Amino acid sequence: MLRNITTREEFSAATKEGTVVVDFFASWCGPCKMLTPVLEQLAEEKKDVVFLKVDVDQASALAAQFQVQAVPTILLFKDGKLVDNRMGYQNKNQLLNFINQ
Known about the structure:
Number of domains: 1
Oligomer: single chain
CATH class: Alpha Beta
Strand content: 25-35%
Radius of gyration: 12 Å
Largest sheet: 5 strands, mixed
Strand order of the largest sheet: 1-3-2-4-5
Shape: globular
Helix content: 25-40%
């Protein structure tokens, strides 16, 4: 399941522990719409990973905090630390490699 995050408090709590994938997206973004089903599938398969979505139009402060310049932007957190990011659409294999690094 993909969980929507709108506040810094929710974001901090959700990314504090474990492996967390955060998708910064916009409702008007075509590649973002293509990415959502891929993330939903991975969320079903990888129960040990938390998948979050942040709408840049609703949570602009979070987008600014992580210097999100384009959507989709995907951030990877491990135990509260940002370890990597990707911009643009990623297919399932690309995302698996990203998560498993």
